[in-house]
Amino acid sequence: MTVADKKTLIEVKHLKEYFDISTGMFRTKPLKAVDDVSFSIKKGETLGLVGESGCGKTTVGRTLLHLYKPTGGEIWYDGKQIKTKRDIKEFRKKATMVFQDPYSSLNPRMTVSDIIGEPLDVHKLVSNKKERMERILELMDYVGLNSEHAARYAHEFSGGQRQRIGIARSLAVNPDFIVCDEPVSALDVSIQAQVINMFDELQEKLGLTYLFIAHDLLVVRHISDRIAVMYLGKMVELADADEIYNRPLHPYSQSLLSAVPVPDPKVARANKRIVLTGDIPSPLNAPSGCPFRTRCRYATDKCAECMPEFNEVSKGHFVACHRVAEIN
User: Fold this and answer.
1) Is the dihedral of CA 16, 20, 21, 24 positive or negative?
2) Model's pTM, two decimal places?
3) pLDDT tens digits along 112-164
4) Distance (Å, whole) CA 237 – CA 151
5) CB of 293 within 8 A of CB of 299?
6) Which CA distances in Å does 309 have to 234, 253, 283, 323?
C-alpha cells in the first residue's frame, strides 16, 4: 500500500496562531505567526515543513499539539476533532514532539531513566518499577543507547546522544504521530545523518507518522514524502518531495531551491541562483495581499490587493500565487 492509499491521520483546517504584542500605552497588536494554514498528513507519511527562520514553522508544530492554544481553525486526529481538555489529554498519548535544542529540552537534574520514564509516569502506562525499567531500557535500545547510560545525567552526553534521549522520551507513550522540530539543526553533519537514518528506521519499525520541520532542504528531501513551504505565517506551496524539487512553481520555492548546494561542480555552475531582494518583512507589519510580494520579481498591483488562494494546480500540487500559470 502506497502512502496515497492510506487514511488521513492528521488534518489541520485554517489554523491561526496570533500573539498579542505590546506596542506601548496599554495597546497591543496581533503578531500573526500562523495565518490560515491547512494541510493533512496520512498514516505512515512524513510531511516536511520548510521556510526561513521566523516564518512560523515551529509555531505550527506547537499549536498542532496544543502547546499553544490555537487562535482559530480546527485540528483533527484520526477523524475526531481535538477541542476539549479531555480530547487534548487523549491526543497527547498518541502525539508527541522532539524539540530542536537537545541542551535545553532535557532536565539537568534528572537521570536519563527518569527523563525517558516521565511520560510513562504522567500517563500511568506502567504498573510497577520493574515494568517501568524494562520499558525504559527497550526505548534506549531503540535509539542506540546502552543500558549503563540510564543512571547518568544529560550533561554527561554529547549533543547527538542528548537528542537520542529526547527521541526515546517522545517514543515512551507509543505514539502514532511525532512533530520533529528541527531535530538535527543543532548537531554536527556526521551525526545528522545517523539521526535522520534512525528516524527512517523507527518509522518503518513502529509505523510512525511525522511532521518534520527543518530549514535544511537536503535533509527534508531525504526524509519527506511531501513538502510544504511556508513564508511569513502562510503556506505558499505543497507537493510531493520530488515534484517540488524538480518543478517548484512558487517564486519563493524557486529561490529557496536555487540555493541548495549541488555536489556536481558542472551542474552547480549551470544552476542560476535566484537572489531575493530586501529583507523578510516583520509579521507585526506584514504586507497587504500576498506576503511575498515585497520581494517577488513577478509582483503586480493585484498581489497587493488580495492574498492568492491556495489552489491545486496539478494533482497533489498546491500553490498560492496569482501568476503561477504565467511564470511557469
Assistant:
1) positive
2) 0.92
3) 999 999 999 999 999 999 999 999 999 999 999 999 999 999 999 998 999 99
4) 46
5) yes
6) 11, 16, 19, 11
